[in-house]
Structure formats: structure tokens, C-alpha cells
Amino acid sequence: MKLKLIYPKWPKMPNQPEFHLPPHGPVCFAATLPETVEIDFIDENVEPLVFDEGCDLVAISCMLTCQIPRGWEIADQYRALGKKVLFGGIAASLHTEETMQHADAVFTGEAEGRMEQVLADFRNDDLKPLYDFLHDFPDTALIKPARRDILNRDLYNYRGVQMVDLVHASRGCRFKCFPCCTPYLGGCRFRPRPIDQVIEELEGIDNNRLFIVDNSLAQDDQWEKELFKAMIPLKKKWVSHPIKDDPEILDLAAEAGCWYVYQAIFDTSDVIRNRIKRLKERGIGVEGTIILGTDDHDEDGIKRLVDFLMDIDLDLAEFTVMTPFPHTPIREQMKKEGRILHNDWRKYTGDRTVFKPAKMSVEKLDEMHQYAWDTFYGPGGKELQMGKLYMSVIQKEIADGTYKRPERDRKGWKK
Ligand code: B12
Ligand code: SF4
Known about the structure:
- This protein is α/β, with parallel strands linked by helices.
- The protein has two domains: 2-140, Rossmann fold, CATH 3.40.50; 156-399, pyruvate-formate lyase- activating enzyme, CATH 3.80.30.
- The chain contains 14 helices and 18 strands.
- The chain has helices spanning 25-30, 68-80, 90-94, 96-100, 115-123, 182-186, 195-203, 221-231, 247-255, 270-281, 299-311, 329-337, 362-377, 381-399, and strands spanning 2-7, 38-43, 57-61, 84-88, 105-109, 130-133, 157-158, 161-162, 165-167, 170-171, 191-192, 209-212, 237-240, 258-264, 285-292, 316-321, 408-409, 412-413.
- The chain has a six-stranded parallel sheet with strand order 2-1-3-4-5-6. The protein has a six-stranded parallel sheet with strand order 9-12-13-14-15-16, sandwiched between helices.
- The longest helix is centred in the C-terminal third of the chain and has 19 residues, at 381-399.
- The protein is globular and about 60 Å long.
């Protein structure tokens, strides 16, 4: 059976350098399919989609709200050609009813252990409009190594620099932060994968640089310590969401190759200042993720926050405008207050204001968002700072003998 698996294009944030990471949802989904399924994968962010008919079933994987309208367009076009279309991924779970209008079947939730039935229904011409597994979580031991072999790896490097490969060691999140839909999707119970399976997957990835995309690694101290200890011999270099701010765990993370972490920064407190200091003392870089436009932010507050970020010497900052994504606590609150301006999902990119801010106009918040990027990075933009972080990883790799120089051919950089 031939399956065309598509990851639709989404609008990138103009302040971000134009690089692409290999998608993770589609390769994890691919790992849930029987080997008899022949997969033709297209990531429309890095290559053009050709509407060919040489497939039995079209599967569309969407992660972001701003990506799903393009998914619907693709589905409509394929269905007009007489092809059956199956949707899945995070955004399909967040926009289920709308997506059902463009699909023969929508799958919500996690796919491990569920695809045999869906494929059997397809073969019997009996696809159900909805396969709802949203809050029925599979055993994490069923998660197999992602099918990275379906990716065209040459498309995921940036000016000759090897980008990261994505991997995850757990699902679910114990926390319930106001802007986040992850508890709705993955549940509020931390669900780690068996560590030996994670290590086996890491060993099999032909890339020394990884992005561990788990929601937060700071969910279970014992598990986190065991994971980092098991990772030390691999000598991988990795980026992740927060790790626990605990001296022993931070030491282990550094030893296990932690290169930099994403750290949400909401205020200018000493708690944040000291947390960043402890990471940097261990050679771990920090990319702050900063949401602008919360109800306590006015123009002055945002200026003070940006000054603080420069003062604590963050390596990178990612500024987004608060966005009421579906199934988040903040959306529920704003709906009640009548502050959501529209549901034009293509504009839910995280870099434009789609709600009425409490202490500013919409235009002022957009202006302050740009102010934050320009002031923090100056004329070199994020590219210059990213270059520095990549130099730091190259130095770490040279120090432990894992550095591989990129190859070059006549046309330019290869890998
Ligand atoms: C990795 C990640 C990224 C990476 C993506 C890299 C890449 N190329 O894929 C990067 C860093 C680029 C990114 C960016 C952003 N992200 Co992000 N990201 C994530 C994260 C942490 C993990 C996603 C993931 O890989 N999960 C693991 C995989 C295995 O799970 P999965 O995709 O659900 O796949 C399973 C099933 O869904 C199913 N499945 C998948 N595909 C298919 C297809 C079919 C046909 C079927 C049947 C099943 C199926 O099978 C898989 C195995 O069970 C999620 C949070 C989360 N925990 O999910 C946020 C998340 C998706 N991101 C989010 C956001 C907000 C963003 C940003 C907008 C802003 C930001 N700063 O966070 C930016 C995008 C800005 C822009 N416009 O450019 C939100 C989404 C909000 C929304 N509704 O759009 C999330 C949910 C986090 C949150 N805080 O709420 N992100
Ligand atoms: S923002 Fe991170 S820590 Fe908070 S609920 Fe979402 S995934 Fe969990």
C-alpha cells in the first residue's frame, strides 16, 4: 500500500532566521505503520508539493494552528482528485470539527497501536469520519524509534551547518500553564518512555546534535537523573525545554551534553536571574521564550523586561505575542471577556496580535513585539547570536572528539 504523507507549509516568523528543523510528528506517526506501507513523505516547508495520484491514501500531519488551513487546502485538492484523506497530528486534535469538513477521516490523539485498525478500515472502504483517541493514551513502551529514514536529510541543514534531529523521551505534562494546550493534548500525567528504549533510539540517530522536544524534562527528579546518567556515554549535544533547577541535575545535564535550554521568562525576578546564572556557570546556553502582551504588560513593562534580558546575558530570546490558541486556559478566559478579535488561523502564528490587550492597543503591542526583537538583537539579528551558539557546540565537539566537518561539493554545502 502506498501512502503519501504530507507536512503542510506554515508561515515562519519573519524575525527568525530561515532554517527548518526536521518534523517530528510525521516520523513518529510513520513508526506506527506496518512495514508493508510504502511511505512517500513531503515536507512542504522545504520542497514543493506535487499533486500526483500515484498513491492509495493521503495522510496529512499538522502540528500548528497556522499550518492547518494549508492542510485543508491540500486535502480539498486531493479529494477532488478522488483520493481519500486522513488527518492527524496536534493541530488535527485541536481543530477536529473543522478538519472533519475537509477529510475522509480525522485521527485525534497518539497513534501507537492504533493504525492497524484505521488501515484495515481504509482497505475495506469503511473509514470512520473520526478516530477519537485524544485522552486514551497508549503505553509509552509502544513508541518505536522515529522513522527518520523517510526524511530527505540534505534539506535540513542551514548554510552547511548540521541542524538538530528531534527526539522525545516522554509525553504529558504535570503543569498547567495559561498559554499552553499541551495538558489538553497529552494529559496532565507525566508519561516517560522506558529509558533503555530512549537510549537505543538516541544511539541510532546519525547526528550528534539533538533537540529533545519533551514538554519539560523537569517533571520527575529520579527519572531525569537516570536519563542524563544514561546519556553521558553517548556524547550527544542537545537542546531541550526546561530542566530542573537543582545543582545535581544541572551537573548531570551538563555532563550528558546539554548545549542549551529553552527557558520561559515571565518576569524580572532574582529567581530567573539566578536560574540563568546557574545554567551558564555550567556551560549551558539559554534561549529565553518570552511571551509579550500578558495582562500585566504595558509599554514600560516590556521595555524593562527587554533590558533585564540583556542584563542577564541571555544567549537567545524568542519573543512571541500572547496567542489564545484553541484549548488553552488563556483562550477560555479571553472568550469570556470577549477579547478575541478573530479566528483567522493563518494569523495565529505567535507573532501578531489577535486579541485585545489589557494595557495597550493592538498596534502598540505589535510595535513593542518588534521593539523587543530589534533591541535585544541589534543589527546582527538572531543569526549572529545563533552563530555564536553553534560555535560553542563545535568547540564542545572538538573537545570530546565528536566533531564532523561538513562535506562540500562543487555546488556548495552538502551536510
Ligand atoms: C517541537 C515543537 C516545535 C518545533 C517544531 C520543529 C518541527 N520541524 O517539527 C519548533 C521549535 C519549530 C516549534 C515552533 C513553534 N511552536 Co511548537 N511545539 C513543539 C512541541 C514541543 C513538540 C511537538 C512534537 O514533536 N511532539 C511529539 C510528536 C511525536 O507528537 P505529535 O506531533 O502529536 O505526533 C503524534 C500524533 O499526533 C500522531 N500523528 C502525527 N501526525 C499524524 C498524522 C496522521 C495522519 C495520523 C493518523 C496521526 C499523526 O502520531 C504521533 C505519534 O503518536 C509541541 C508541544 C508538544 N508537546 O506537542 C509544541 C507546539 C506544537 N508548538 C506550539 C507553538 C505555539 C509554537 C510556536 C507558534 C511558538 C512558540 N514559540 O512556541 C512556534 C512556531 C512559530 C512559527 N510560526 O514559525 C504549540 C501549538 C499551538 C498551536 N495551536 O499552534 C505547541 C502545542 C506547544 C504549546 N505551548 O502549546 N515547535
Ligand atoms: S508550557 Fe510547558 S510546562 Fe507549561 S503546561 Fe505547557 S508544556 Fe507544560
